[in-house]
Amino acid sequence: MIDSRKGKPSIFRPTHFSRRNFVRLGMGAALSLRATRLLAQGVSSHTAKPLPRPAASGRPFNAHFVDVAAAAGLHAPVIYGDVEIKKYIVESTGCGCAFIDYDNDGWMDLFLLSGTRLGSAPEGTTNRLYKNNRDGTFTDVTEKAGLRSLGWACGVCIGDYNNDGFDDIFCSNFGQNALYRNNGDGTFTDVTKAAGLWNDQQRWGAGCTFVDYDRDGHLDLFVSNYVRFFFEHAPAPGENNNCKWKGIPVECGPRGPATGKHSLYRNNGDGTFTEVTQQAGISKAASTYGMTAVAADFDEDGWQDIYVACDSTPSLLFMNNRDGTFREEGVLRGPALSEDGMEQAGMGIGVGDYDLDGHLDLFKTHFTDDANILYHNDGKGNFDDATGSSRLGVETRFVCWGAGIVDLDNDGLPDLFMVTGHVYPHVERTLPQYSYKTPRAVFRNLGKGVFEELIEAAGPAVAAAHCSRGCAFGDFDNDGDVDILIVNLNEPPSLLRNDLSGKANWIKVKLEGVKSNRSAIGARVLVHYGGKTQAQAVLSQSSFFSCNDPRLHFGLGDSTAADIDVYWPSGLHETFKQMKFGPDERLGVEFRAEFFNGFNHPQFSPPNSGCCGSAFFGQVTSKYNLPRIVQFALRFTF
Fold it and tell me: Nearest CA to 418 among 435, 434, 436, 395?
């Protein structure tokens, strides 16, 4: 999270070998230097000189974001530490948020985490669940749902761990994590102890993700831990080298305190979990300050891997050995270090297919004066740094957190989005160039692996300055585009409604497993359209400590047909050919499919809705009398 800027800046320049090869050749030297730096100072020293900004493309960007949080009823602030100055690092990290359809009505509800204060928190401080009223507004149902909680919340991951058809909530916290079982009646029960997830000792749970790592159809749980922090032993700001930034006294860390130890819990299939951290090989990895965790099949072998963004230490990539164990290969495969072989302040992670080659790439956010990194996946789980070639390296001004690889304008080219905000509220008084509240940023995809940064041009909600942390992507108003929920520290959250213009088509895929876990977490979906192929995955956590809408959204541009490949977490593969939208209609199709695994369904032809601007929901069954119903919705965009 925290990154000093005392080192020499790196400059993105062409090389004659990949960064991955460079790291392989210099692995020993790089790790040796890292150990030296750990002794010399307490925070990452990596910086990057920003790339020159090219001339504006002049292309129109049809996505336009407006913050409708107040009108939607999201008034309660996210309390997190002191407003004017932070004494301890626990006040600075912030927390995530989630889109969750907790009542299965087809409309995304909102879950927002919160922290507290060192003294007494304002009355009403709590995590919050908001029910979607289906009219652009939300109702706070936190008390009714049994989700009131006060503490230092960090991460959230969503998944149906007991396969009962209702998504459950896991929250990682400083102190004690919490598992909330969805009772299916609008309420939740804290089952942390009963599920075997209670920690006898205080820990700092940070990133978390449900993952079916052993393909038994039950969601297991991975938790990254950040810093072993204790208030009674924490030094004061400015007390040592770990507690200064550019000569200014600040809260200490992350270096100084010991690193956290990451944990893996196997789902026993009866509502309980067993810790298997050692048996699974997770404990063999180097000690790191773990933050956001994502689980996906990065090498496309049909088994789930785990990637952890780490602060001021090398990020981790746990590759699945297919026998219940993992091997950590972040340095070897590429996404652990910077282009020049140094650790960075890894915070948020976006996962998607930015160059449309059918493989899951990574977008990782960092501290101010450093570049965020775009990692290109070769399809075998090897990653090369594409930050320079993609022009992402033009931006180094902000401390960056939540992130996503998402198609914001439905043109069929996934864009990049990130939120920002500093960790030291008082520094801007001495160094005004380091503002505490800063804007969000869009990097619109121009094609051929190249991006263009947009701030004001993407709408007032992007340009607005806040101190943000987590963000989640989803379609809260079911109008066929991607909206964004954002955590702002010590002020109400932002809800960025995407007022998309134009007539681009889109498709959503909602999966439900039968042999696989019911949430289909870990499923990889390829959509083929207009000569392009785009990969996405159903994730339990990404961005920064957050969880996106589980319905995978694919912009299609002007394409009116698509083929869909579904690679289930069970290892099975299904193909759906020529999903056609009609030659004389410009529309988007939301295809909510509850597939029976391993069965090749015939093509389903949705009926005409008969009117424009409205939605038609229906049910059809095939002649094979499938055990699951296929649901679909049509939504016209003209």
Answer: 395
Task: Determine how many CB atoms are found less than 10 A away from the CB of residue 288.
Answer: 28
Q: What is the pLDDT of residues 484-524, one digit of tens each?
A: 999 999 999 999 999 999 989 999 999 999 999 999 999 99
Ranges of H-type helices in 264-414: 330-333
DSSP 573-584: EEEEEEEE--TT
Provide the b/e sequence for 566-600 (b: ≥16 CB within 10 Å): bbbbbbbebebeebebeeebebbbbbbbbbbbeee
Asked if 125 and 116 count as a contact pair (C-beta separation under 8 A), the reply is yes
pLDDT at 538: 98
As a whole number of angstroms, the distance between CA 114 and CA 126 comes to: 6
Q: Of all residues in the chain, what percent are helix, strand and coil, respectively (each to 5)?
A: 10, 35, 55
**Strand 305-310 and strand 316-320: pairing?**
antiparallel
What does pLDDT average to in each consecutive run of 10 residues of the chain (638 residues)? 42 46 49 42 75 96 98 98 96 98 97 96 97 98 98 98 98 98 98 96 96 98 97 94 92 92 97 98 96 98 98 97 98 96 96 98 97 98 97 97 98 98 97 98 98 98 98 97 98 98 93 94 97 98 98 95 94 89 47 41 33 28 28 31
Question: In the structure encoding, which two tokens stand for residue 273, read together?
Answer: 């979990």
pTM of the model: 0.90
CA atoms within a 13 Å half-sphere pointing along the CA-CB vector of 1: 33
* 614: Cα separation from own chain's centroid: 31
What is the Cα–Cα distance from 253 to 241, expressed in whole angstroms? 9
Tokens 């140094």 belong to: 342
- What are the distances in angstroms from CA 487 to CA 64, 97, 112, 507? 20, 7, 7, 27
**What are the phi and psi torsion angles at 330 (to 5°)?**
-60, -45
Model confidence over 300-324: pLDDT tens digits?
A: 999 999 999 999 999 999 999 999 9
Q: Which residues of 341-369 are buried (b: 16+ CB within 10 A; e: fewer)?
A: bbbbbbbbbbbbbbbbbbbbbbbbbbbbb
Q: How far is CA 149 from CA 10, 29, 170, in A?
A: 43, 46, 13
Question: Which amino acid, residue 9?
Answer: P
3-state secondary structure 117-136: CCCCCCCCCCCEEEEECCCC
Torsion angle, CA of 154/158/159/161, rounded to 10 degrees? 40
Residue 205: beta bridge partners?
A: 225
Amino acid at 548: N
Which residue shows structure tokens 């600075």? 92
- The strand pairing partners of 159, in sequence order, are 168
* H-helix or E-strand spanning residue 469: strand 468-474
